[in-house]
Amino acid sequence: MKKISLLCMILVVFSVLLSACGFGPSSALSGPKDSGTIVVGSKNFSENIIVGDMEYYLLKAKLKGVNVENKPNLGSTAVLWNALQSGQLDTYVDYTGTGLVDIMKMPVTHDPDEAYQTVKKEYPTRYHIDWLNPMGFNDTYAVAVPKTIAEKYHLKKISDLAPVASQLVFGGEPDYFTRPDAYPGLSKTYGLHFQSLKQIDVGLKYQAAANNQVQVLDVYSTDGNLIRYGMTVLEDDKHFFPPYYAAPIVRESTLKAHPEISSILNSLQNTLTDSSMQQLNYQVDVQHKSPDDVAQQFLKSKGLL
User: Predicted confidence band at 7 (pLDDT cuts at 50, 70, 90)?
Assistant: First the structure.
């Protein structure tokens, strides 16, 4: 019994130490935030951390007389969304497809403007949160091939694959071949019949393409590995994949208190393309540069800092 009590005491002390050091669950969001502070958050992947850092450095430089705090790498969409609704965060960058399907539980749309206009219209009424202007890039699902394959078969768009698909192997994660919004729908929409389909772990698929084990991959359109492995993203000319355009979302109460936030963050409108976001992700994920350095350098290159 004493051993159990001692063990419990050790675990409690260890948990307290972890929390004090910032390693406990949601430790970055513990307790109410200072009402005079604007808090920027970001999700737990490089791209969202980079664009969150852009928000932070812009607001820090241009929002005069206001303390701005950055809380990067907080977790999943659910963590960020709950923090935004509760007032622990004031803003983060989200994606139109995420807002439409994951938050609002609405059907997928393949029209980028419809997706944006829907979330922009519905969020203020439902959640008292505003969507600002899109940053320009679309982090959606995509199909890519090595540049050598693109040149050999003259591939620029997904429909170009149809006549030559029987000579190529398509590689993707196991669930990609069963989800209706992935390969089954893609192959039906474009009339694709590949030589074979190869299931590959997400961490191995680019190497498989480099080794010519597969010639066509499912990818994310802004992945930095596309640059690392010399991949060409094919245009989704039949608009099969849903839009995931990135834009800052901000609490209405925050904008009411500081209306200048809109113009500050809207200076990011259309500053990023899929290709330039790939490059920034490449710098962080492959070259191991820090997201905040990458964000600041980008803002300076655009004359925003």
Answer: very low
pLDDT for 179: 84
Which residues make beta-bridge pairs with 146?
231
Residue 197 corresponds to which tokens in the numbers above? 């389909």
Domains (range + CATH), the chain: 34-138+243-301 (3.40.190.10), 141-234 (3.40.190.120)
Q: Does the model's pTM come out above 0.85?
A: yes
